[in-house]
Amino acid sequence: MAYSTTSDDVVAEVDSVELADLGLASGPRTLKDMTGVERWELSLEEAIRLSLVNSTVLRDLGGTVVRSPVAIQTSLDPAIRETDPRLGVEAALSAFDAQIDAGLRSEKIDRRLNNRFAGDVGFLTGQVSSWDSGISKRTATGSRFSLNQHIDHERDNNPGNQFPGGAWNVWYDAEARQPLLQGGGIDFNRISGPDGTPGAYNGIMIARIRADVGLAEFEIGLRDFISNVENAYWDLYYAYRDLDAKVRARDAALETWRQIEALNATGRRGGEAEKEAQAREQYFRFEAEVQDSLAGRPLDGTRTSNGSLPGTFRGLPGVLVNEKRMRLIMNQPPDPVRLICPIDEPTSAAVIFDWASATTEALTRRGELRLQRLVVNQGELELIAAKNFLLPQLDVFGRYRVRGFGNSLIDPRGGQPRFDNAYQDMTSGDFAEWQAGLEYSAPIGFRQAHAAVRNAELRLTRERAVLRSQQEEIIYALSLAIAELDRAHLLKQTNYNRYLAANQQVIAVEAAYEDDRVEFIAVLDARRRLADAESQHYRSQAEYAIALKNVHFEKGTLLDYDRIASVEGPWPGRGNFRAF
């Protein structure tokens, strides 16, 4: 795939997308056209694998990708955060990169001197050319080292010049500067960066935390995505089982209607008009339920944050609509022939979690808590950096310079007279200068620095309070999830017993009707009860599977439960080791 580099190309590439590229060349499968349907038997593990392989965008089932695309997570987000040229890790490291500066200038001189004794020679003309270059380097302690070179050639008509054809000047100097108070120290420079200001910190440690925040946000998005894949899978499982129950009830109702209609046509006992009408109404009632269970309606199904963060089971009927939602979350194009059919069955065993271990895992592994701890850690580092700005600026520096002067810049011949060339004169060491000292600077009152410290303290207090509240809410949500798991398991057992009883009731009532011991309405009522009991039985199974998934979600172990691992690649640049 080729990526365009201009906005016009990008627009053209987007506009050229065809329906075939989106898998929409054929219309959607509808209730009126169910001929030639094939089953795509799909396990939950395979559904998760395909979802991860096909999805750059971690969709949800609430339309966020269209409604608020900025809020959606993608697999590219951690790398985008890492490579941010303003706030990324490499941007923070770049503050310690060596800097080369160079400049080449030439200037013509043509002026009148303000000297009445100069007479006719009071006009100064000439040309000055210069070349300056240097390299400087910051270190993690705040030190700044630089090495500079200056070369110039000056030629003018001054009658006092030693060399009428012009003279060369050259000098090299080396300078070292170290902050002793404000701006000094490894901790401050790795938190704030060498060019930090109160309230604006972008050192390597802060940048690394921002990158880790991006990874934590991605893992949270991945967890929510996997949760939605499971939600859609069990929604579709229930839709198929509900349809099967409705089809069995409809077929039984159709057989009963035909029997009553046959008796009615021959005028025999049991084929009375009211019984035929009741059987016919029962059939069309179940037929309507079959149609609804097959097609469904686009209502809000099971998804994250629909009552609980991991998703509260909705159990909405509709194979076709739930199959479309399953394809959407898996990033699979519509298929006019094959329909996804879940083949995994929910576990029937009772799963019991130890409360102490579950709470420990939740407080340790929940992505939201890990993310907030990173924010707290960032606040602690920013407070350290803010306090450094309460110190005055006190720098110690030293500079050493050697100079050279000559008629020419370089003369490869040795043993020439003094000032024959500037480089020979410089290497003699006759003209050496040095400078050392202290520089002090401090604002009176440190108003901005005090405001920065107070702001950092307040922000840190806030983030710690948020972390505490998150811990309390996560334990609360975990308790609800475990209680829901217990309820779902008990209800699953109860509804199974109800289903067995309803099935036995149908057998008994039909036998009683054959013996003329009950009215026909009792048979119809028993079959309605059986259809409802069977549907509730499968609903309870899907509900239990969702409840089990939700406990792992609240514990922070959902990715482990589904055998998914997210691995961070090597950190380019080795971070702190390059900031020296």
What is the CATH architecture annotation of the domain at 24-81 and 211-366 and 462-571? Up-down Bundle
Order of helices and strands, N to C? Answer: HEHEHEHHEEEEHHHHEHHEHEHHH
CATH superfamily of the domain at 24-81 and 211-366 and 462-571: Outer membrane efflux proteins (OEP)
Query: How many beta-strand segments?
Result: 10
Q: Level of helix content? A: 40-55%
CATH topology of the domain at 24-81 and 211-366 and 462-571, anyone?
A: Outer membrane efflux proteins (OEP)
Strand order of the largest sheet: 4-5-6-7-9-10
Task: Give the biggest beta sheet.
Answer: 6 strands, antiparallel
Strand content: 15-25%
Average pLDDT confidence is: 86
Number of discrete helical segments: 15
- Rg measurement, Å: 41 Å
Describe the structure in your own words.
By secondary structure, the protein is an alpha+beta fold. The protein is 50% helix and 16% strand. Strand 5 (123-138) and strand 6 form a beta hairpin. The longest helix has 68 residues, at 447-514. The chain is elongated. The two termini are 40 Å apart. The model is unreliable at 1-14 and 572-580 (pLDDT under 50).
